[in-house]
Amino acid sequence: MHLPFDEHGILLRRDAIASGIEDDWLHRMVRTDELIRMRQGAYVDPAVWVPATPAGRHVLVGRAVMQQYDDRVALSHASAHLRRGGPDWGLDLSTVHVTNLFGRGDRRKAGITHHRGWVGVHDLTRTEDHWITAPGRTAVETASLLPLAPAVGVLDWTLHHELTTREELDRYASEVMREWSDSPVLKLAVPLSDGRAESVAETRLRLLFRTHGFDVEPQFEVFHPSGTLAGRVDMLLRELRLLVEFDGAIKYGRLLHPGQTIKDVIREERAREVLLEELTGLRMFRTVWADLDHPRRTIERAIHASTARLAG
Predict the structure, then answer these.
(1) Where would I find the beta strands (DSSP E) of 32-175?
(2) Alpha-carbon distances, residue 80 vs 27, 76, 77, 151 (angstroms)
(3) Closest CA to 220 of 206, 234, 209
(4) Are 155 and 248 part of one and the same domain?
(5) Which H/E stretch holds residue 15?
C-alpha cells in the first residue's frame, strides 16, 4: 500500500485515516519496522528516521508537532534553532519547544515544552505554514536555558550566519531577563558572543583561553609582504605568540578538492602552517575535540609551546 508521506517522510494518523488506512494496519506496520512511530499520532518513514542524527530526529518530531497544532503556537527555543540548522552541542533534544501565542504555557506534556511570553509581530516568521520565532529571539531564549559554553555557541552561530545582530541580541536578552529573573547566564553569554566563530569548537576554544585569562583574536589574518592574504587561522593568542587552529575531520572534509584524499589535505595544511609561521615568527598550536574536554592540560600545552618557541 502506498503511504501518503509528506516531503519530509512524515505521516500523521489523521492523514492516514483520511486516506483509508486503518489503525490496525498502522500498528502492524510499526511492529514489523516498516513504519516508525515518533509520537502520538505521528509516524515517519524508516528510510528517513534511521540515518538521521539526533538533531535531525528532533527536527522531524518538531515538524510533526507543528502539523498537529494550529496557529496558536510557534516553534521556539532549541527546536527553532535546530530547524534553522544550528549546532546541537549541549542542547536537550528530548522535548520539542513551542511558544503559545495567546498566553498559555509553562508546562511540559507528551514530549512538548510549552512556553508563554509576550510575542510581537517582529518576533515571528512564517515557514511551512506555521510560525517560528525570529532568529534573534530564538537564540536568546535557547541560550537562557543552557550552561554558559553551549549558550555562547548558539549565539555565536546565529551571529555568524547573520541571522541577527548584537543589538538585537541585547534587546531580546533584556526582555528575557526582565520577564524571567532566573536567566543569569544571558548576562555573561551575550557579551561573550562573537560572530567570527565558524564552529562550536572555535567557540569552546575561545572561551577556554578567555577563562584562563588570555586575550583571543578570532579569525586572525596573515599577509605576505606584498599585502596579499597568505592565510587565516582560527585565532591568535598574542600574549603566548601562538597561532591557533582547531583540527577536525569535518574541517578537513571541507577542504577536499575532487580527486584529493585527507592525506593530500594534511600535507597542504602542513605547508600552509610552515608559511604562516615564517611570515609571522609565531608558532602554530593545533587542537582537537579531545583537548576541549581537558582544559587544564590544553592550557599547559599552549604555555609549553610558547615557552619552547621563546627558548628556541
Answers:
(1) 36-39, 42-44, 73-75, 96-100, 107-109, 112-115, 124-127, 130-133
(2) 31, 5, 6, 15
(3) 234
(4) no
(5) helix 13-18
- Other beta carbons within 10 Å of 117: 19
Q: How far apart are the first and last CA of the chain?
A: 73
Question: With contact defined as beta carbons under 8 Å apart, do 190 and 173 qualify?
Answer: yes
Our separate counts of H helices and E strands in the chain read 14, 13
Residues 143 and 79 in one domain: yes
Averaged confidence pLDDT in the chain: 91
Structural domain span for residue 34: 1-51
- Position 109 scores a pLDDT of 86
Q: Which amino acid is at 29?
A: M
Burial of 37 (0-12, 13-18, 19+ CB in 10 A): middle
Task: Convert the pLDDT of each residue in 229-281 to its tens digit.
Answer: 999 999 999 999 999 999 855 555 555 567 667 676 778 888 999 999 999 99
Q: Residues, the chain, total? A: 312
DSSP 122: G
Q: CA 287 → CA 36, 147, 292, 294, distances in Å?
A: 40, 23, 8, 11
Those residues whose C-beta lies under 8 Å from the C-beta of residue 49, and which sit 6 or more positions away, are 9, 36, 38, 57, 60
The reply to whether 100 and 21 lie within a common domain is no
Total count of domains within the chain: 3
Half-sphere exposure of 39 toward its Cβ, with a 13 Å CA cutoff? 20
User: How far is 230 from 221, CA to CA, in rounded Å?
Assistant: 8
